[in-house]
Design goal:
The structure is a single chain. This protein has twelve helices and 20 strands. It is of the alpha+beta class. The strands form four sheets. Strands 1, 2, 3, 4, 5, 6, 7 and 8 form an eight-stranded mixed beta sheet that branches. A hairpin with a 4-residue loop joins β2 and β3. α7 packs parallel to α8. Bound molecules: adenosine-5'-diphosphate.
């Protein structure tokens, strides 16, 4: 199961990196989405502006083409032609006007008007036939004519006829020295311009349309028949070359327009928001994809980085735990950065120092216990002699005190013995034989030796020997020590009237011996330390029980030297089962 420790460095680093990378990715992502949205809007605007200006240029070209043709300049000065009778060059103008109307199929009428406003020559197109009209009017009241007389080119408002929209163009006829001698007026159908608008394309559903100066529709790329359609509401909303979103024909569109220099007409482009936005969303999806990809990459990169940092820290932590539990092991060279390397070096120096200290302590303990052994043994010997009455009679009070002294001396001797064993075990000088032995003998001797202790607490010791005598590999004397230790613990840490059972089990090539008691058991949280030197489980029940905490440590060393293993199971208040295995000796 995944364990999350909220206060661990690893979790904090994960949280830190996740917050850091997520927030920067989110900020960058939203910024790019915003910028891309802006850029896309600009792109849409520039696509529309380009289209508008292209269509405007094409339209204006049609008009200027006609105007240029109508701009007739007589190659003489006014004084040179003033005296020439009009009829002489009327013939020329008839030719010119006829030519012009034939050249432009969309010209409905072309008229030569003198400075009094009187129509002099007039050609009209009727059912594709060009005829000279005999109905000649006076146009002097017309404002546009008056303007043209002042050497200005004038274009009328658009007139919407059943045959289509048309305009009137008034162009002055001038002499070489810029004197206006007449005005040409042409009525022109806007068919060419309608064609230009029809041919415009904006995405697959965008469209363009042309409005006159009063915002009436002249031509539309998608609408064919129309009359009196006014778009003032759209135009009044915005300025030229500005992109805005509005509803047109029930659809949301991006719209922008351009105003003509020549005529004040407007070229408008509209692009349904749905389609135009696809352009935007395509970019935004790409950004989101990249953001997710970067997020995933930085997530994995941070995992690698965090593990890279945590690994040596964990290594040092485990090594420190080892040192804490008495295993003085140095950290092997690992690939690490400078700071960690220094930390490892310092740690190893500390371990060296501890090993040195341990050695000194061991030597001291060995020397002290070795030197203590002889005088304490002598003390015990003399006390035995006195208590035996060999030296003389002693009174009861003195005997009582001497008995207490003897018991303390025995405990002291046991401690000295244990300390010496430990010193030997640690220096490798502990000698243990590995030969075929009879385990039952060791067990029975130990039981025999501990009978008085068992009787004191009225504990029954039950031993179930194997049906068939089985020999194991070990050291008989040492095994007796081991059994005395196990059984005395089973008695010491037991209730009065308790029970101790000893039985065997054969598993593969091993003989397992179990020592089961009905005693206090060992609290769960103290169990892992049970085989450590000087460790004694703490509880109310064991408070007054004498011991050194060295027995099980020595037992473990001895059994392992005999190539066996030791373990136990224990339940507080229920009892314990201590077990050890030894190799079964192969029969000769
Ligand atoms: P000592 O008995 O001298 O304290 P040991 O090394 O023999 O030292 O045992 C270590 C500790 O393990 C004991 O202090 C005791 O708390 C616990 N212990 C050992 N055997 C038993 C047992 N059979 N039942 C309960 N506790 C035990």
């Amino acid at each position: 199961m995944l364990k999350i420790k909220l206060n661990s460095l690893k979790t904090k680093l994960y949280v830190y990196f996740t917050v850091l990378s997520l927030s920067s990715i989110l900020i960058l992502g939203s910024l790019s989405v915003y910028l891309s949205f802006k850029t896309s809007l600009n792109n849409i605007l520039s696509i529309q502006t380009n289209l508008n200006s292209l269509k405007t240029k094409e339209t204006e070209l049609v008009l200027t083409n006609l105007i240029e043709t109508l701009k007739i300049i007589i190659p003489q000065n006014y004084t040179e032609i003033a005296h020439i009778p009009f009829d002489q060059y009327k013939i020329n103008f008839i030719k010119i006007l006829n030519q012009i109307i034939s050249q432009f199929p969309n010209l409905l009428e072309i008229t030569y008007i003198d400075l009094n406003g009187q129509e002099i020559i007039k050609f009209i197109r009727d059912n594709n036939q060009i005829q000279e009209s005999l109905r000649l009017d006076n146009l002097s009241p017309l404002q546009l004519f008056q303007e043209a007389k002042k050497a200005r080119i004038k274009i009328s408002e658009v007139h919407y006829t059943l045959n289509g929209p048309l305009i009137e163009i008034f162009v002055p006829v001038q002499t070489k020295d810029n004197v206006v001698i007449a005005v040409l007026m042409a009525k022109f159908f806007l068919n060419d311009i309608i064609e230009i608008i029809k041919k415009s394309q904006l995405g697959s559903s965008g469209y363009t349309y042309l409005l006159d100066e009063n915002n009436y529709l002249i031509a539309h790329s998608q609408i064919n028949h129309h009359l009196n359609l006014n778009f003032s509401s759209v135009i009044n909303k915005t300025k030229p070359n500005n992109l805005i979103v509005y509803n047109n024909f029930g659809k949301k569109v991006y719209g922008s327009y351009l105003v003509f220099n020549l005529t004040n007409w407007k070229m408008v482009s509209e692009w349904p928001v749905n389609e135009a936005n696809q352009l935007i969303f395509r970019q935004i999806y790409l950004i989101i994809f990249v953001v997710i990809l970067v997020g995933i990459i930085s997530f994995f990169a941070s995992i690698i980085f965090i593990n890279y940092i945590i690994k040596p820290i964990n290594l040092i932590k485990e090594s420190a735990q080892n040192v804490g539990s008495g295993r003085f092991e140095k950290i092997k060279e690992t690939k690490a950065d400078e700071e960690i390397k220094i930390l490892i070096e310092e740690f190893n120096k500390m371990v060296d120092g501890l090993i040195q200290l341990q050695k000194l302590k061991d030597e001291f303990v060995f020397l002290a216990s070795h030197e203590l052994k002889a005088p304490v043994s002598a003390l015990k010997g003399y006390l035995t002699l006195i208590l035996d009455g060999t030296i003389g009679k002693i009174d009861e009070v003195a005997r009582e005190y001497l008995l207490k002294m003897k018991s303390s001396t025995e405990r002291l001797l046991q401690l000295v013995h244990d300390l010496l064993e430990i010193s030997r075990a640690e220096s490798g000088a502990l000698k243990v034989k590995t030969e075929p032995i009879n385990i039952e003998e060791a067990i029975k001797t130990a039981i025999e030796e501990l009978k008085p202790l068992a009787q004191e607490k009225n504990i029954e010791i039950k031993y179930q020997p194997l049906e068939k005598i089985t020999q194991v590999i070990g050291d008989l004397e040492r095994l007796k020590e081991v059994m005395i230790n196990f059984i005395s613990n089973a008695l010491k840490y037991n209730y009065e009237n308790g029970k101790v059972e000893i039985f065997h089990e054969i598993k593969n090539d091993e003989l397992i011996t179990h020592i089961k008691d009905t005693g206090f058991g060992i609290p769960k949280d103290q169990q892992e330390k049970i085989f450590q030197k000087f460790f004694r489980a703490q509880s109310k029940l064991t408070e007054n029980i004498q011991g050194t905490g060295l027995g099980l440590f020595i037992v473990k060393q001895l059994i392992e030297k005999m190539n066996g293993r030791v373990w136990f199971v224990s339940e507080e208040g229920q009892g314990s089962i201590f077990s050890f295995s030894l190799k079964i000796a192969k029969e000769a």
